[in-house]
Specification:
alpha/beta, 6-stranded antiparallel beta barrel, 19 strands, 8-stranded parallel beta sheet, about 25% strand
């Protein structure tokens, strides 16, 4: 019998989430961001849902090649552009659109031999200070690209550093508007947070929007908004089962380091999931669904197991069976109860992105 843990990928939930995005950006084309192997969900697993977008955005050329092998004929955007001159051959061969964010990439394009002009997204650094031309160099880069026969079309883009927080986007948007004033080209500035929070209110340029975490069902601005408030549904559900139950007396401890002490006589359930499966070791009192009942972890997460408090289950009259009682680490239970990954991430002092991307290869993945 295989170990009772798996990640379930709900394609209909992703389709629903993309529709939510379209409601917030009805006039925009959507880049579905499926970099990092679709945020740990698996490119091949989510492809049938992601193809409802207008374009697919990735990071690695191997991911772009996988999409062409899946017979995706639409636009593919390389979010970090090319890393060396010969990468432009990939762009020509696979018909890839690519971001240009530094002078070297412009230089490589100028010497690239191609019969088909490239479609590039010129990136402005509007305050994130990761990638992109500064405001003073942005126009010069646009002029250089515009003069190249190797370039067919130039679009304009930036990435907001504070779209998910109280500072918002107005300061960065002002930088972008001034730097791009008078430049021709489609515009792409909004990520998930900007699309859901600011697109309608701030008159944000939105020929294209880039949607990542919202497509996978997590709130881009948790805890200010929940996924439920945005109308998003979880795409990944990490499910396991109880494999043992321990009856504790008051004063008994649980796990390595004895970090949890039973305050009273109680039962704990042992779950087949640990940090070797991708569950965060530093999770503390993280929410869990046991048989659809909300409870929490106790003690330290081990490599292959973790412990959960069964008192809420006992109070709810849940009949616990071992093996067999379903445990949902995040996502949707078989009964329909939902545990947002954002809540687990919060208890682990991280974000849902990291939880999804950290799922171990040893965890079987199923597609619903």
């Amino acid at each position: 019998m295989p170990r009772p843990i798996h990640a379930l990928i709900d394609i209909d939930a992703m389709r629903h989430n993309l529709q939510v995005v379209r409601q917030h950006a009805p006039d925009a084309r959507i880049w579905a961001v499926i970099k990092a192997n679709a945020y740990g969900h698996g490119i091949e697993n989510v492809f049938d849902a992601a193809r409802a977008a207008d374009g697919l955005a990735v990071l690695d050329f191997s991911e772009a090649e996988r999409l062409r092998r899946l017979d995706w004929r639409g636009p593919i955007l390389m979010l970090e552009g090319v890393f060396e001159p010969r990468d432009l051959e990939w762009c020509s061969r696979l018909d890839l659109w690519h971001v240009v964010h530094n002078d070297a990439q412009v230089d490589w394009l100028a010497t690239h031999k191609t019969h088909v002009g490239h479609r590039v997204f010129l990136k402005l650094n509007s305050g994130m200070n990761r990638l992109g031309f500064g405001p003073q160099a942005f126009r010069a880069a646009w002029s250089r690209l515009n003069a190249l026969s190797q370039v067919d079309e130039i679009s304009l883009m930036t990435h907001f550093a504070d779209a998910d927080g109280p500072r918002g986007i107005e300061h960065a948007l002002a930088v972008y508007r001034e730097a791009s004033d008078g430049m021709m080209g489609a515009q792409c500035v909004a990520n998930s947070a900007a699309t859901l929070r600011h697109l309608r209110a701030a008159d944000v340029p939105s020929d294209w929007v880039r949607v990542g975490i919202a497509m996978y069902g997590s709130a881009p601005d948790h805890p200010e908004h929940t996924s439920e408030q945005w109308g998003l549904q979880p795409v990944m559900s990490l499910r396991s089962e109880l494999i043992a139950v321990q009856s504790l007396c008051a004063g008994d401890t649980v796990g390595y380091g004895s970090t949890f002490t039973a305050p009273e006589d109680m039962r704990v359930g042992i779950v087949a999931c640990g940090y070797a499966d991708g569950y965060p070791r530093h999770a503390k009192h993280a929410p869990v669904l046991v048989g659809g009942v909300r409870t929490q972890t106790v003690g330290r997460v081990s490599m292959d197991m973790l412990a959960v408090d069964l008192r809420p289950c006992d109070a709810a009259g849940l009949e616990v069976t071992v093996p067999g009682t379903e445990v949902v680490l995040w996502g949707r239970s078989a009964s329909g109860a939902v545990l947002p990954a954002d809540l687990v991430a919060e208890a682990s002092e991280t974000i849902a992105y990291e939880l999804f991307c950290a799922i171990s290869p040893r965890v079987p993945v199923r597609v619903a």
